[in-house]
Every structure is written in structure tokens, then in C-alpha cells.
Amino acid sequence: MVASFNNLKTLAIVAFALALCVQVTLGSITCENLNKDSCAFAISSTGKRCVLEKSLRRSGEQVYTCRTSEIEADNKLKNRIETDNCIQSCGVNRNTLGISSDSLLECHFTKKLCSPECYKHCPNIVDLYFNLAAGEGVYLPRLCEEQGGNGRRGMAEIRSSGIVAPAPEMGVKPANFMISPAMSPF
């Protein structure tokens, strides 16, 4: 009887400790509280993306800080720090400063982003680059389809094949050329 009470007591302590760990792990993410090694590709509990910024102190020392950006992630992706597996599979770097679409012009990066390991299993990174590509007038799924050929040529073709508003002297209203925004595959 005493042994089973001790086992029950031990089990209760372990359950409490486990619940406490889960609560700490699943706590709210605030970008400003993240360190350099977990900031890039993280999403705060409010759904805003975190960005890593670098500044110089008067002494010349480089200081890295994590800030909350104005860029919102998909609602399903709130409160998330990207996994090391996705960082590696998608070819991104935890030391990335800011958020930019420039890497979409690099064949090696786009090939990794479009790989099944990244595209099918890392919705946070795919959502980010889907929206960055859309901001450049590029539809990411189509860019990924083009990866079979020359990725750089594919990006150039996709960018040049977008709808371009006519010049004002043509008398056509640009509103006729508006399309609804594309949705991320996630």
C-alpha cells in the first residue's frame, strides 16, 4: 500500500513537471525575446514575422537584435520557431538579416525551396517565400515547375509574363487588369 502511494506520488510529480515543460515550450513567442540563433524565420504569437537586424555600437562591436516586422504570416503558423530540419531542407540561414525576395533569383536556393523536403513539409518558409514572390509578381508554384529547366531563365520568363498595365495614352483603365491575390498553398 505504501509502495503504490509512493508510485502514485512520483507519477503525479512527473506529470506536473511534464505539464510545466509543455507550458514553457508552448508559451507565447515575442520576437524581441528571441536570440540571434532562433530569430530568423520565427513567427510571434501575434502572427507577425520576426526579423534579425544588425547594428554597430560606438565601440564598433556588431550587435544582433530580433524585432517584430509588419509582415504577417498565415494564421495557422502563429507562435513558431522554424525547425533546424526545415532550415536545412529549404536552404535558408538562421543568420539571414531582414526579409528579402532576392534569394528567389538564385538557382541553388530556389531548387532547395521547391524540393519536396521543403515545399511539402515546411509551410512557414514556403508561405514566406510564396508571399515574397507574389510581391514581385511571381507565382511560386509556377516558379517551382520551371525548376526542371534553367531556374534563372524561368524566373525571368515568369517575371516578364505577368500582366502589365497599359500606358496611360492607350485610354485603357488599369482597373480592367486587376486580379485577385493568390493564396499560399498552405
TrEMBL record:
Q: Where would one find the signal peptide in this protein?
A: 1-27
PANTHER family named in the record: PAR-1B PROTEIN, PAR1 PROTEIN
InterPro entries according to UniProt: PAR1
* Membrane spanning residue stretches: none
The UniProt keyword set, sorted, is:
Signal
* Coiled-coil region: none
Classify the source by domain of life: Eukaryota
Q: What's this protein's name?
A: PAR1 protein
